[in-house]
Write a structure and sequence with these properties.
Layout (H helix, E strand, L loop, with lengths): L2 E5 L2 E5 L5 E3 L6 E10 L2 E6 L8 E2 L3 E3 L6 H13 L2 E15 L4 E14 L15 E5 L1 H4 L3 E2 L4 H5 L5 E7 L3
Parallel strand pairs: 4-9, 6-11, 8-12
Antiparallel strand pairs: 1-2, 2-3, 4-5, 4-7, 5-10, 8-9
């Protein structure tokens, strides 16, 4: 259990084994993302409210405690796209951060299979974050701004990959 204490006028958080974190410490955010190929097309979403960015990514999001990564991912994919998926094996671990804001996210990407549904312009993300969703071919994705960059080759490849820590982009 962490304890809040004041040392020399600075707020600190004490963790297990006496680790001291400054109060600006924020835990690493864990997210799960889907690599869903259907009819040789990859599912992408634009997760910027109001279409503020042209950046596309795999659907998914932050995990909720008490549910497995696959269960979290299936829920997120449905919320963002209206599609039901089977979550398979992990295929990528990706990290990004914003040192200025103390934000660090680790994402676990899973290969997924479409079980039910089709994309519809009428579908609304309940959190109003995802505003566009589409399946793209290997050729079409090259004309888009996509993160992580390795997603392009990873989606049509195999194995487990790791993308080293990089700065967040918008």
């Amino acid at each position: 259990m962490a304890l809040l204490n004041r040392i020399g006028g600075n707020s600190c958080l004490f963790g297990r084994l006496g680790t001291v974190f400054p109060m600006t410490y924020r835990p690493i955010r864990l997210a799960a993302r889907a690599v869903l190929l259907h009819e040789d097309r990859l599912l992408l979403v634009n997760a910027y409210p109001g279409q503020q960015s042209d950046l596309w990514c795999a659907p998914g999001g932050g995990v909720e405690a008490g549910a497995s990564l696959p269960d979290n991912l299936a829920r997120e994919v449905y919320e963002e796209t209206g599609l039901r998926v089977d979550v398979g094996t992990p295929c990528l671990i990706n990290e990004f951060h914003s040192p200025e804001h103390g934000f660090h996210q680790v994402e676990v990407f899973f290969r997924c299979a479409l079980v039910e549904g089709q994309l519809s312009d009428d579908w609304q993300d309940p959190e109003a974050v995802v505003n566009r969703r589409q399946f793209v071919t290997r050729q079409e994705i090259r004309a888009l701004r996509v993160k992580p960059s390795s997603l392009i080759d990873l989606a049509w490849g195999d194995g487990l990959h790791y993308d080293p820590l990089e700065r967040i982009v918008s």
